[in-house]
């Protein structure tokens, strides 16, 4: 956890997503916070960049590498055909509930 983040009168735990996935920590002075609005506990992930929201197609390719990062990757996907550029990108689909659970406490503060 890198700190706390407030929005609309609610407090969120701010977590560096790179560090949570086992990569080098990102620059804490830059980046974006992805607010997980319906998560409990309330969580915001700091990321280097947020490129876009897109529709994806699950990649059932048997030659795909196994999920990494402490079993936080559910599967891989590719951009939807209508959103696909010339490059063939693969996208890791993260298990947000499991990822948030890594930072959850066993007891909740009163009034939450």
Automatic annotation (TrEMBL):
Transmembrane segments: none annotated. InterPro entries: CheW-like_dom_sf, CheW-lke_dom. Residues 1-105 form the CheW-like domain. GO terms for biological process: chemotaxis; signal transduction. It comes from the Bacteria. This is CheW-like domain-containing protein. It comes from Agaricicola taiwanensis. The lineage of its organism: Bacteria, Pseudomonadati, Pseudomonadota, Alphaproteobacteria, Rhodobacterales.
